[in-house]
Amino acid sequence: MPETEKSKIVSAISSALFQEALLAELEDSDSDLMNHSDARAAHKMADLTRYMESRQKIPRSTAHRYNLFEHREKEFRQSVRVDPATFDYLLSLIVDDPIFYNGSENPQTDIAIQLAVTLEWCGTFGNGNTCGRLARSYGFGAGTISEFVQRARKSLLRFYSRFVAWPSATKRTTSSAFHSARYGLSGAIGFVDGAYVNFSQKPHVDGHLFFTRKKRYGLNVQIFCDEDQRILHAHTGWPGSCGDALVFSHTQVSKNSERYFAIGEYLIGDSGYALSERLITPYKMPRAAQSDNARFNTIVSSARVVNENCIGALKNRWASLYGARTQIKVAEDFAKVNNHILLCVLLHNVTLQMKDPWTEEDREDVSAAEGESDDEDDDGCCIDTPPASRNAENKREMIKRRVLGNY
Questions:
Q1: From start to end residue, where is composition biased (Acidic residues) (predicted)?
Q2: Exposed e or buried b for every residue in 102-127, given b needs 16+ CB within 10 A?
Q3: How far is 275 from 386, CA to CA, in rounded Å?
Q4: Could you tell me if residue 81 is left (phi over 0), alpha (psi between -120 and 50 degrees) or otherwise beta?
Q5: Residue 24 — very low, low, confident or very high, per pLDDT cuts 50/70/90?
Q6: 90: which strand partners?
Q7: What is the pTM of this model?
């Protein structure tokens, strides 16, 4: 990086002070002491001065920040990824948060603009997902854009448990009835699958641990959802080198399953997971080659499509999840990425509640992310998982007989 004017001046004064100190041993005079004192004062002043010359005001256009709210709905959605009604609802959640009020004579920027910047940040990918690009669009400094995102993210995440929560006993019964009627999967209350959230560059902290089997650096995020693509739980923070079975085994849903499931209830996952009484998976080879097992696998895979669609909808709408641009320089930077992921999960569920779907037409402006998906189905892959218990094997056999009896 080029040396700044300030560093040049400080270095020059430091060099002069060093030379003065050497000469002081040879010539001891009041004049020399006075010059030395003046040099030290100059050094201190230069060190404490942030800018060595007057700052030049950079001309910025403020048109977009105001025109945004005058756009037609299609253009508005392309910018902030939600329709006006959803935007107004999100704004109503955070408008009274003290984080947006500094109590000074210079109030913060309109909360609606801070929210719009944050949503656009979450919904863009690659070069579009930068403070510089948003700064040029909205007419703010890059540092100000970062502050907007941090404030709005913190404020919205206060509502995380309201929108992302494990289903009640009543809702689980409804889900079980749905899967029983549709597929014969009585007791199924939802699905789980892993999704990679890649980093734009290798983390500086334990970077090798985050190298995924897709040859990228990222996190393995476990996404639990129901038949409506509503996310029930998101477990993030684990390195991408860890497989789904390992990460799932460390979730609260797995470790304290009695708190999340009634008798007979279970989730459905792909063959990357270990079979258990609470997680039913397809048969692996060579047993998958048997005709009845193959039929069962096909039906289970058909049911699991909803989980794949859920992850696809999450990433396509909030395209920043295709590649987190936060530089991981210290361990605390991981928390920023994790909170960003949780914010996108919250926004996904809010749009479902608001009946604000993301359509094929809406996807046109995230074409840069096409082909970036690392979340392919693991069914049929040769992934080693811990051996299942006899009870888990018996339960899958019982479910298989019930499922095949419906077809």
A1: 371-381
A2: eeeeeebbebbbbbbbbbbbbbbbbe
A3: 8
A4: left
A5: low
A6: none
A7: 0.83
